[in-house]
Structure formats: C-alpha cells, structure tokens
From TrEMBL:
CDD domains: AHBA_syn. PANTHER family: DTDP-4-AMINO-4,6-DIDEOXYGALACTOSE TRANSAMINASE, TRANSAMINASE. This is Perosamine synthetase. The lineage of its organism: Bacteria, Bacillati, Actinomycetota, Actinomycetes, Micromonosporales. It comes from Actinoplanes teichomyceticus. Belongs to the DegT/DnrJ/EryC1 family. The modification N6-(pyridoxal phosphate)lysine is found at residue 179.
C-alpha cells in the first residue's frame, strides 16, 4: 500500500539518535536546548518543545490564560485538537466558517463570531498554506484577544516574507511522522511574546518555577522550586530532540521536494474532469503538507474506495470538528459552517511525502484519471 504520507529517515538521523542514546541524557538535556535553538532559526521566534502537536495547543492556550467563561474562535476544518485543547481548559469554542479556496479560517466569518468574551482567535494553516494573518491580526487586536496559529502543517512555510512562527502571538507545530519533519512524536510552541513563551515553558514542566527572582521563598537551598500554577509534564526528551535537529538540517530539501511534487500534480491533473485542484494565494510560499483535491459530482466516496482498493493510500482531511459526538453533545449542530461542510464532502488528500518517487506519483495520477474517466 502506497501511503498518503510518511517520514523520511536517513543514516544521519539514525546516527543522531544513537549518539543521544550513548550520552548521559535521555530526557531533558542539552539536545533539547539545541533543538529549540534550531527551531527558532526556522520559525523566526523562540520556541519551547513539547511532546506532540496536541500538547503544543494545550500549552499555548494555557499560556494565554484561556479558561472558563472565555471564547475561542476557530475553524472546524482541522483535527479535533485545535478545538478540544481549548475546551478542556473550560473555554467555549466558537466555530467560524472557512474560505472557499483555501479551507483556511475566513477572516470575515471570524470577525462576525467575535464577542466581548473572545479571548483567542485560532487559525489553522490548512495543508501548509498560511492563513490570512494580516486580516486576522486586526481582528484579534481589535477584540483584545491573542492570535494563535495552529501550524501543525506549516513549519517551513512563509507568509508575506515572514516565516510561520513569527506572525501570531502563539504558534504551534507538530512533528508527527507524516508532517513536514518528524521527531517520531513531538511538537513545539513558538511565541513572539516573551511572557507567553515563559508561561508555555512553565506549563510544559509541571508548573515548576526555579528562577530565584520569581520564588516567593528565597531563603531555601538551590534544590528549591515552587509551583504557582498547575502544569503538566509535556517535556520532549533529548533523544527525540536529537532526531529533530537532524531533520531540520534537511528541511530546505524537504520543502523543495514537496513543492516539486505539488507542481507535478498541478500540471498532470489540470485537465482531469470532475476534479478541483488546490490553490496557492498570493503572498505565501507554502511547504505543502497535504495535496488536497476536491472530487466533484458526489463521487468522493467512490474515488476513495477505488483508490484504496488499488493500493493507494488517500485520506480525508478533515471531518468538521463540531460533527464529533463530543461537540454534538454540547449542542453544536450540523450546518453551522456550510463552506467547511461542502469542502469536507469533496476533499481527498493524495499521497505527498518527500520520498514519493515520480513513478509512484504517476501511478497515483493514472489511477485517479482512470477512475474519474470511467
């Protein structure tokens, strides 16, 4: 079965992990600091590593002080964690519809969803294409809310000349194997605001405070620490950070190959009837995590099943978040975001990963052509 996404591991990655295993540090050690510095050079802002993309969102919302009585405006066209991480802190999630062409959060819909209780506006860089942060920034600032970027798909992407990670108040990354780079499991929070970054760092370390100037009791020994707010153990271990730093050294090559594969899809699928291809808005330079096509005329289920039967792993990204029973049980109803629901009804992600060969991509294209032409 040809997968729709997979990691790219080379001997240099293996050597980095082995060296970490041979060291005195397996959990939090020098490679965590090194990886965070490496990430900062790519993201354009200081970073705190965490155990995965979901915990990155949880830590980011916690750093922003999201809690009971607050509202978080976000998109339904995402993995559930973008919303559930806020809900678990007691916030009310307010879903706003998406743009027709990108499936990113629609700024006009987000603005209409803002109320006096809005504490955060959380966008998702769907498929690696950055959201419209210029307009979203104006909306969040006007509401006195933090701007959060769920960039699980988008490390390496650029928006109007700025790297994703340097635009929103808080940006979250995922390093799951199918993402643009991997640490097996892992994630990070980037922030352009030192106060929010420090809060995220403290939260991911069980809330432990060790800096002498922050302690309420300063007359104890060097072993002493305090917990001022509850946190969780979301620390990414040294051995996985070693893999992350090794992967980052190949990020430019990863991006070039993903862009090359996307361009081949654009060219070779352009004339296929019943198929709508993804677009890239002006002013963005995406590192595509997904290649999401839209299968028209109600044939998405058929195409999905026949591609799978042909040994080609395709995927649907994503089920509208408020369709999940956990949100339905809270009173959310279908029909809230019609553009997102129409997108879901047609979306199909074709295989896209660094080690996908031209030959295998041609097989995907030929199979898809054959199905839609029959």
């Amino acid at each position: 079965m040809l997968p729709y996404g997979r990691q790219s591991i080379e001997p240099s990655d293996v050597a980095a992990v082995v060296a970490a295993l041979d060291s005195d540090w397996l959990t939090t050690g020098p490679r965590v600091t090194e990886f965070e510095a490496d990430l900062e050079r790519v993201a354009g802002a200081p970073c705190v590593t965490v155990t995965n993309g979901t915990t990155a969102l949880h830590a980011a919302y916690a750093a922003a002080g999201i809690g009971a009585g607050d509202e978080v405006v976000t998109t339904p066209m995402t993995f559930v964690a973008t919303a559930s991480a806020a809900a678990m802190l007691g916030a009310t999630v307010v879903f706003a519809d998406v743009e027709e062409d990108t499936a990113n959060l629609d700024p006009a819909a987000a603005e209409a969803a803002v109320t006096g209780r809005t504490r955060a506006v959380a966008a998702v860089d769907y498929a690696g294409v950055p959201a419209d942060y210029e307009r979203l920034r104006k909306i969040s600032d006007s509401a006195g809310a933090v701007l959060v970027a769920d960039a699980a798909h988008a490390i390496g992407s650029v928006y109007r000349g700025r790297p994703v990670g340097s635009i929103a108040d808080l940006t979250t990354f995922s390093f799951f194997p199918t993402k643009n780079l991997t640490t097996a499991e892992g994630g990070a929070v980037a922030s352009i605001r030192p106060d929010l970054l420090e809060r995220a760092r403290t939260f991911r370390t069980v809330g432990m405070v060790k800096k002498p100037e922050l302690l309420r009791r300063r007359d104890e020994g060097r072993w002493f620490y305090e917990v001022h707010e509850f946190g969780l153990n979301y620390r990414l271990p040294d051995v996985l950070c070693a893999l992350g730093s090794a992967q980052l050294r190949r990020l430019a090559a990863f991006k070039a190959r993903r862009q090359q594969l996307a361009a081949r899809y654009d060219e070779l699928l352009a004339d296929v009837p019943g198929l709508r291809l993804p677009v890239t808005p002006d002013g963005v330079d995406p590192m595509r995590h997904l290649y999401p096509v839209r299968v028209l005329d109600g044939r998405r289920r058929e195409v999905y099943d026949r591609m799978q039967a042909a040994g080609i792993g395709v995927q649907v990204n994503y089920i509208p978040v408020y369709w999940h029973p956990v949100f339905a049980d809270l009173g959310y109803r279908r029909g809230m975001c019609p553009v997102a629901e129409a997108f879901y009804a047609e979306e199909l992600s074709l295989p896209l990963f660094v080690d996908l060969s031209d030959t295998d991509q041609d097989r995907v294209i030929d199979t898809l052509r054959g199905i839609l032409g029959s």
